[in-house]
Amino acid sequence: MKKVVIVGGGISGMTAGILLQQAGIPTEIYEKNPLPGGQCTGWKREGYMIDNCVHWLTGTRSGSGLYDLWNAVGVLGPEMELRRKPMFFSAELNGQKLTFWRDKEKTRQEMLALSPEDAKEIHKLMDYVTLAETMSVPVEKPFDAMNLLDYMKLGMSMKSMGKVMKEYGRMDIQELADRFHHPLIRKAISSYMPAGYQAYAFLVSYGTVTGENGDIPAGGSLKMALRMADKYKALGGVLHLHTPVQKVLLRDHKAEGVLLSDGSRAEAEEVICACDTSFTFGNLLDASLMPASLKKMYDERKKYPVSSGFQVAFAVDGVFPELSGTHIFYCDPFTVGAQKVDGMSMQTYDYEPDFAPEGHMIIQSNFIQNEESYRYWEQLYSNQETYQAKKQELAEKAMEQLCKAYPVLQGKIRILDIWTPMTYRRWCNSYSGAYMSFVVTKGAKETRVPGVIKGIPNLYIASQWLMGPGGLPTAAGMGKFAAWRIAKKYGKKLDC
User: Fold this and answer.
1) DSSP string of 257-291?
2) Is 155's pLDDT higher than 80?
């Protein structure tokens, strides 16, 4: 049997590779970067670990297909310690503070004390968060391969989610926030997600944490990716790092392998493109081969927007427990990219003892950037001197705002690293520098791309971009779906 070639060593590609190796189907992964994991990564700066990806990992509660998948690919397991953060996030405004705790009843009481006049909406929100805890990511088999019984089982497993969608499925995040009278509650909800996200996404995200289904594997993003890579190689998979692929080779409506950037070829019986789909169609393959359902999302930019971030990591001399967790606070307005902001986030990583030297902390701040801001950074990037100067200027402004909001940091904080939407573009070929997939806005049709290319039976797509809003569960699921199709073709079964 000839091997399967997988383009991209991110979560999708490694998931597909591990499952195929387990099924006895040989694979090789070609990854352009010196490290596997794609956007699930981290890097060291001056003894501090900067974590790029996992704020919580959906699927850490046993009893779901996603949990089984994470176990199968080496992310979870009986020996894996999980970090359980006590809060989802907190927000501060005009001297008042609201925390969305892991314990949602504690949140309910805090909200009621803050705003008794919002009691009806507070009770409704918390009750529906409980219903949203049942949400699971379907990863058993590709959606187009599901039969009526499969859909019935899926519907029954997420019966409570249907009630959430009925109540909150026709509003966006701002409309959810506007249901409340208290300015802090409104600000907290509307600021947590990029504009355009549907309201139910907030409930599902919070419900993932309150439902014990959103913990963090010890070591964070980079160690998660490296564990997957180690498992893949232990199963006999071949991982080529620092090896960009230039083209998928097609002949007579069949993929023959790939052309590497050094001019050599890697032949294959099956090919999986497990990378950003804007790169797949236009670089690896002709853009005309893009499935219509995927092209629709790229074409309709207002209905299916994407977002990125301008981010800064800070080293802190000292340990301040009062800063623990994720916080949103409101500040003097300034412009980041093409957007005016009047608030910012601050996240500490003190749940990982090795992320900062003893007696120190690391803080990261993220300013959400829309597609207009991406174009700003893209243009700026052409002049590296101007680009670097603007990064530094904005990072210093962010540090100033942090010290103003938290005076304890004054004289004890410094800039560690700065990254922009162009960083994601350079590292992962990310469309508009996005770190997740398309946002399906209110009124837009939910679209799932099958992961096959019409007329080329041995070519597959595995990427978070096949189903909004993307993220790690979607990436892993799409990797499994590609492996499922190939295993079925050869009369094999996957282990999960």
Assistant:
1) EEEETTS-EEE-SEEEE-S-HHHHBTTTB-GGGS-
2) no
Radius of gyration of the CA atoms of the chain, in A:
22
For residue 276, pLDDT beyond 90: yes
Handedness of CA 48, 49, 55, 56 (dihedral sign): negative
Omega before residue 333 within 30° of 0, cis: no
β-bridge partners, 297: none
* Residue 296 clears pLDDT 80, i.e. is over it: yes
**Contact status, residue 320 vs residue 412, Cβ threshold 8 Å:** no
3-class SS string, 213-257: CEEEECCHHHHHHHHHHHHHHHCCCEEECCCCEEEEEECCCCEEE
Q: Which two tokens stand for residue 312?
A: 């800064």
Vertex 210 angle, CA 63 and 142, to 5°: 40
Q: For 195, how many CA atoms within 13 A lie in the half-sphere containing its CB?
A: 7
Which are the contacts of 310, defined by CB distance < 8 A and separation ≥ 6?
336, 337, 366, 367, 369, 373, 377, 394, 418, 419, 420, 421
Q: Which two tokens stand for residue 491?
A: 């009369």
Q: Rounded to whole angstroms, what are the CA distances from 91 to 187, 188, 327?
A: 8, 6, 6
CA distance 199 to 119: 19
Looking at 23-147, list the stretches that DSSP marks H as alpha helix, in order from N- to C-terminal side: 65-72, 104-114, 119-132
Q: How far apart are CA 6 and CA 226, in angstroms?
A: 17
Angle CA(283)–CA(231)–CA(457) in degrees, nearest 5? 40
Q: How far apart are CA 459 and CA 135, in angstroms?
A: 31
Task: Judge contact between 476 and 313, C-beta under 8 A.
Answer: no
pLDDT at 446 over 90: no
* Position 1 pLDDT exceeds 60: no
In this predicted model, what pLDDT tens digit does every residue of 368-394 receive, in sequence order? 999 999 999 999 999 999 999 999 999
The verdict on pTM exceeding 0.90 is yes
**263: which 2 tokens?**
């001019």
Per the DSSP assignment, residues forming a β-bridge with 101 are: 87
Alpha carbon 267 to chain centroid distance? Answer: 32
What are the start-end ranges of the H helices in 328-471? 371-381, 384-405, 421-428
Contact 223, 43 (CB under 8 A): no
Range list of H helices, 285-442: 292-299, 371-381, 384-405, 421-428
> CB–CB of 84/215 below 8 Å?
yes
Average pLDDT along the chain: 95
Quick check: bond before 469 cis, omega within 30? Answer: yes
Residue 348 pLDDT exceeds 60 = yes
The answer to whether the CB of 184 falls within 8 A of the CB of 98 is yes
